[in-house]
Amino acid sequence: MINIAVLGYGTIGSGVVEVLRINGDSIFKRAGDEINVKYVLDLKEFPGDPIMDILVHDADIILDDPEVKIVVEVMGGVEPAYSFVKKALLNGKSVVTSNKELVAKHGAELLDLAKEKNLNFLFEASVGGGIPIIRPLNQSLTADEIVEITGILNGTTNYILSKMSEEDIDFETALKNAQALGYAERDPSADVDGHDACRKIAILSSLAYGMQVDFEDIYTEGISHITDIDIQYAKALKARIKLFASSIRDEDESVYAMVAPVMIRADHPLYSVNDVFNGIYVKGNVIGDVMFYGSGAGKLPTASAVVADVVDAAKHLNKNIWTIWSSKKLELISTDRVKHRFLVRVSKENNTLKDMEALFGEIEKVPEVVTDELAFITPLISEKDMKEKKEQISGIVGSVRVRF
Amino acid sequence: MINIAVLGYGTIGSGVVEVLRINGDSIFKRAGDEINVKYVLDLKEFPGDPIMDILVHDADIILDDPEVKIVVEVMGGVEPAYSFVKKALLNGKSVVTSNKELVAKHGAELLDLAKEKNLNFLFEASVGGGIPIIRPLNQSLTADEIVEITGILNGTTNYILSKMSEEDIDFETALKNAQALGYAERDPSADVDGHDACRKIAILSSLAYGMQVDFEDIYTEGISHITDIDIQYAKALKARIKLFASSIRDEDESVYAMVAPVMIRADHPLYSVNDVFNGIYVKGNVIGDVMFYGSGAGKLPTASAVVADVVDAAKHLNKNIWTIWSSKKLELISTDRVKHRFLVRVSKENNTLKDMEALFGEIEKVPEVVTDELAFITPLISEKDMKEKKEQISGIVGSVRVRF
């Protein structure tokens, strides 16, 4: 029997306890031993819940108990999670976490510590909910040099953008619906401003390139400026708008990363990733294109990923599973020189297509959606040039990056 | 330095040597040691190829050399591959293979032998080419009871069906084009009759349910009976025809498996898997839907999967990676009782919709594609009942299973 403890009895924590109960028999078979939840840590009480018998309010009871071999941290946030996880590793316990803030901030250090202690620090559930992506990156795509990772990594924004498109509603209405359904928080900024996706692409990039990618360095733009008119343009172009979190390695081996809405067409592997689903596209120099798809959040899918890590930790109690993520910082190149095409919307009152051609060169006309607007797609242009040119246009309504 | 040997210098074997050369540095980092190809086995000569220096024609030179720690078997076919692999394991070498015939036939036995000898028998490349699916099934989806695996597992048939649809051509023309491009063999029967997909779903099912699924027990139907008119019906129904290889666990825990063309709509995760790409959809009882997508064949993608297994074998030289695939046979239930809806095409001369309603109950009318035909979709009906009813129809033109 292997004793574990669950820190945090919220959505994911209670999901972990539930999955271990529902699938206990097959998990036993796969782990080679029974997984027993010895403690649950939470500040609250849960009257009537069977976990009351094992509920504790003091983390040290868990962290100082040598019988606990694996600690599951599903509290979220950097502190006190970081202190608890560090102490757990120092005290000889492997750690499984779903906490993207913790992993993005302290992943390299905690992996080093786990390695030093011959333990494991596993975090499959921190990106893409239930989708297996951390382990495939770490153990399956090992023959490749990764040249691009692009993910739809935030279910809330993907749901909002999908509904804006399907139901012809504006951003605020779609957000309110998402909040009513529990898909968005009351304070939605972490999701809609792209911060959640930013931390996740930082984790994936650090693993793909084997060096520390600091999330603070990643250019991050959310979706709150995307209007129902932008969506109509996308439809007119047989395209969809998705919040992409990307990191791309140039031919000269420099890497840039950004989170921003982009228009894609049906030929992109992520085009069919709709609603709350997540998808992660990876391009390797020999494997070519691969894509992973599934529920990016939700109680049971996320708990499934956490428990799969518990099984792995149980199978490797005193053997470190090697993960290459050095604490050496990867200096991202500025997005200034990154090139995209852009859909640009300008007022007809102040602008003509001729003006725009004079400014951008050969532009692609776009079907009319709003009578008082001109819209067109630019040639490939760097972010810096685009910014400068936008300042020269009076009556600019908006712009969205285009990947086709 | 870890010495390996490559058995077979065809497309995949030469790809393996190429990937180890192109990405040698990063593979070194991930394996923790240099991977050195000490021998290549092939009956042919390759004048001018650098591997000539290490080419041998006698497998025993490799199998009896204690310096060789990992044997890569990429010859294909059951014999002599099976004898070579068995001897390699008996002589203390881990084995990596891309050989689906070998794995489907002898997987359980070779896994047992590897475990007994504290070695590894790895076969990521045997299903889905470069797509990571074996390792995710074995190591990532361990918290779940798998209730369905459905794959588009054969690139040749997917290419043919995609082109029939995109270019409005018939089966024979699409097959000839595929042969001209090297996507189909001169004798295409292993692909178009479904035998290749059948072996692959047998492997995935054995891993998912942990017991031996014999490919001979799987109901297998190919695509050669699919006509351009069937494709037109699919288009009229906003659907596509795909060769699905499925295994599904019922609520009473009985499993059935089948390979057959089916019509699906855009809401199915595999709808966008076109051309030579493969996709594998997995449904777990807690994770819900996940899908893996990528190149299902091709020199470098397949070699990428083989080399990733070599890296894993190198990291686990004297430690068996546990795989649950018992040699105990899983008795599949007969497909007789499996239910589908069917698109049925009958001649107008002999039949009326009224007749068909009398026979099937409530049917769904389908837009007219051919003037002298009636087409409709049946309610859910068992394979057995469908077979019996088809015999009662004079002037039946064809039928295709429908998954919507």
UniProtKB/TrEMBL annotation, chains A, B:
NADP(+) binds at L7, G8, Y9, G10, T11, I12, G13, S14. Residues 132-311 form the Homoserine dehydrogenase catalytic domain. One of its GO terms (biological process) is methionine biosynthetic process. L-homoserine binds at E185. SUPFAM superfamilies: Glyceraldehyde-3-phosphate dehydrogenase-like, C-terminal domain (SSF55347), NAD(P)-binding Rossmann-fold domains (SSF51735). The active site is at K200. Pathway: Amino-acid biosynthesis; L-methionine biosynthesis via de novo pathway; L-homoserine from L-aspartate: step 3/3; Amino-acid biosynthesis; L-threonine biosynthesis; L-threonine from L-aspartate: step 3/5. Its EC number is 1.1.1.3. The keyword Lipid biosynthesis does not apply. Keywords: Amino-acid biosynthesis, Methionine biosynthesis, NADP, Oxidoreductase, Sodium, Threonine biosynthesis. Residues 8-124 form the Aspartate/homoserine dehydrogenase NAD-binding domain. GO terms for molecular function: homoserine dehydrogenase activity; NADP binding. It comes from the Bacteria. It catalyses: L-homoserine + NADP(+) = L-aspartate 4-semialdehyde + NADPH + H(+). PROSITE patterns: HOMOSER_DHGENASE (PS01042). NADPH binds at K100. The keyword Amino-acid biosynthesis applies. Belongs to the homoserine dehydrogenase family. This is Homoserine dehydrogenase.
